[in-house]
Amino acid sequence: MTLVSRRTAALSxxxxxxxxxxxxxxxxxxxxxxxxxxxxxGFNGFDLFRGQAVAQRFTVPxxxxxxxxxxxxxxxxxxDTAQRFLRVQVRMDALDTGGADSMPGGRVVEExxxxxxxVGWDPVEQYFRSERRTRLQAGRNYWVVAGSRAQGGNDPxxxxxxxxxxxxxxxxxxxxxxxxxxxxxxxxxxxxxxA
Length: 195
What we know:
Layout: H1 3-23, E1 29-34, E2 45-47, E3 53-59, E4 66-77, E5 85-93, E6 104-115, E7 124-129, E8 135-136, E9 141-147, E10 156-171, E11 180-185, E12 187-192
Antiparallel strand pairs: 1-12, 2-10, 3-9, 3-10, 4-7, 4-8, 4-10, 4-12, 5-6, 5-9, 10-11
């Protein structure tokens, strides 16, 4: 290697190192990882349609505030032809916004609207990426909420995890139920850890 090419290589490596420090995003970590689908009940879950929205609670680690990277869970579709729209939200817990019970609160911190990514009972893991890196406060409870305007029988299905119990809630048009223990739904929440 000649002196010129060594110098060029050294400058290139130094530039990469500086660019990496200045603009690199820290790696994400899972706050929640409830894999699936499957388990004792096979491929089952909650229908997401005009008459029912479903939510599952998660807790941010107490070691500092995290930045939301993405939310994902496993879905199937009761329709073999139509990919209905799905609305997914991350909401603050009602207890943190003046409510009397732990349930999805009225404050939405992140929201996505997209189509379910599958047709028929062919499960897919679908992710919803945060563009804002929403701050999730240390030690607080949040809710992942999913719903659809689809007609029952032609709707997305949020699948149960392989195992475990979590705190869930549902809304059948009369408001959210207080959180209650239920079979865990598939859920992955990835976040940027505290600096």
